[in-house]
Design brief:
This protein is mostly helical and 220 residues long. The protein has a domain of 77 residues. The chain is built from 9 helices and 2 strands; from the N terminus they run αααβααβαααα. It has a two-stranded parallel sheet. The two termini are 71 Å apart.
Length: 220
């Protein structure tokens, strides 16, 4: 819907009515002698907050101000986590996927993930895999939405990272789950790319066999 044009004054367009206390009506010695002369506004002093202050600063001062802003921003965005961190209980909320035992339970859970069921209910029992590559295959087969698939991958990353931390507590070796999941995604994409190339070659070979020239050569 188009909104009406806002008009501050009830005048016709391009019509400027005389106003009280306007500069043209001031009777000073200069205006009586020379008449009204329009004075151009100095662009440097156009803003009221300027008031003739010198804003010329060096590049180092500007960089220092910018660094000060960034440090203040980091301080305000940093949250001091003073709470005691408890280990994640993976036995109550996660269960491994077996071949025959948990197949039916896994299928119902994946169908619920593909539907619009709230994820807070699904988080109470999350299936896990031994291989990360199997996760993407099942997500593709059940046609899970992108956001819900990302949530499931985050839950699995939390599970794997908690297990790795408990195993490597004595070694004190930091683990980054992002690199492992990135490697798994790259392997899946390579496999999909190779499949697409094979399908493309097979389709081109079938189309070449069905061309009229190939049919004529076979008949001859």
């Amino acid at each position: 819907m188009s909104r009406p044009v806002r008009r501050n004054r009830p005048y016709l367009p391009d019509v400027y009515v005389q106003e009280p206390k306007q500069k043209e009506d001031e009777l000073s010695a200069e205006t009586v002698k020379n008449g009204f002369t329009f004075k151009y506004i100095d662009l440097a002093l156009e803003h009221d907050g300027f008031k003739g202050t010198d804003f010329k600063q060096s590049e180092d001062d500007i960089l220092n101000l910018f660094r000060h802003i960034l440090t203040k921003k980091d301080e305000n965005n940093t949250i001091n986590d003073l709470k005691k961190k408890f280990p994640l209980n993976t036995k109550d909320n996660f269960w491994p996927v077996m071949a025959a035992r948990t197949q039916k339970r896994f299928e119902t859970w994946m169908s619920a993930l593909a539907s619009t069921e709230p994820v807070n209910k699904l988080a109470k029992s999350v299936p896990t895999f031994l291989k990360k590559e199997d996760v993407f295959q099942h997500l593709f087969e059940h046609n899970v939405a992108l956001l819900r698939a990302g949530w499931y991958i985050k839950m699995l990353a939390l599970y794997y990272s908690s297990n790795n931390d408990s195993k490597q507590k004595k070694r004190h070796v930091p683990t980054d789950p992002c690199t492992e999941w990135t490697k798994a995604i790259i392997d899946i994409l390579k496999d999909v790319f190779e499949r697409l190339i094979k399908d493309n070659h097979s389709q081109t070979s079938i189309s070449e066999l069905n061309t009229p020239s190939a049919i004529n050569l076979d008949s001859e």
